[in-house]
Amino acid sequence: GVLRARSRPAREPLAPRPTLAYLPRLIEGTGLSLSSEPSPGDPPWPEAVERAAYRAVQEALTNIAKPAPRAPVGVRLPARAARLLVEVHNERPPRRPGAMPLPGGGHG
Question: 27 with 38: CB under 8 angstroms?
Fold first, then answer.
């Protein structure tokens, strides 16, 4: 049998690279409760900056969703002195009844 055709099919079009315009869709897709709306200041930003900011928010939301899937999340993108800042924070999730706190080692 033939494992691979000799001629390659035409490449499928690449999906657009996500930028700040895709943030609402990203946040909605996580199922997290958003406590503040992201609104990037002073647009337009270079595409590379927007992609980096999007990826930073994406990574932060992933890190929050694993241990605290029901915790409210805040996402802010303030601009200061021609710099775009990315701020993502979450509140501590409510403790389950009967749950004991883990001992802290004080090392991060």
Answer: yes
